[in-house]
Write a structure and sequence with these properties.
This protein folds into two domains: 143 residues, no CATH class; 104 residues, Immunoglobulin-like. Helix content is 45%, strand content 19%. It has six helices and eight strands. Helix 1 crosses helix 3 and helix 4 packs antiparallel against helix 6. The longest helix has 72 residues. It binds zinc ion. The site of zinc ion has 7 residues, from helix 3.
Amino acid sequence: MKHERATEEIRELAALYALGSLTQHEAHSFEIHMREGCSVCEAEFHKFEHIIAGMGFAVDEAAAPDYVKDLLLARIERENRPAMAAAAPQATIPESKATQTKSDTPPAPPLIFSQPAQKQTSILAWALTALFAIAALFMYFTSKSGQDANNQLLADYSAAKSDLDNLKTLLDVQKTRIGELDQILSITGKPGAKVLRLSGQVPAPAAAGAILWDGVEGKFLAFGVLPPEPEGKVYQLWFLSPTAKIRAGLLKLNLTNRFFVSDLIPRDAANATVAGITLEPDNGSQFPTLPFYAVGRIAD
Ligand SMILES: [Zn+2]
């Protein structure tokens, strides 16, 4: 007879079989029953076999079957009740009688001495196996859930930390932008300040930017966006007059390929008419390496 679904009885049978705690006869019938193709019983058996095999090891998926403990306890109670009752009147067996059977069977505790030898061994072995299994299951699931809780805490902690790091980064970016905006406003508000637009040239048509030129204070501010610089190269700003090409510092791009530079106008660049950006080797150059990536007119 095949089973339609797992009942408590089937689970108990499968659990006890997996623990090796059925009598030989019971185990044999269960094996035949599974061999005859009861997939329900077989599935239950494999479930318990898996749990028992995994005791004390780290197994990834593990559903803690609370009822295993309950049904084991219930079975111990059930098995012990008749044993205790039968043993009670025999509790005062004389020592000599208790040792009589020593030659053919191992010594058994006096409490269950009156039981038939095979039944005694079976119950004792079963009770020990069950107690061991309960202890092992308990330890396994306790340590497993403790470990899970720890892992969860760690995951929560690192998630919170990464959120905080992201917020800090965002805040730093905002602070930088506010600082940049303050500098832009302070220059553009000054009388005599000029704004020149930087336009992308052939190698970088999408390049764009501006230079705020404060001839009175002798300061300039350059900002914009450029294509990411190749490894080992850096953008350099130049001020060009009809007679000279004047170095005006390196333009380091941030993570969004933007630059923002504030510096003093070089003394000999006071009458420069054009600003230009080139791509130079890592530490910059003495003279611009053509072509220009962006260009803007300082004076009309
Ligand atoms: Zn079955």
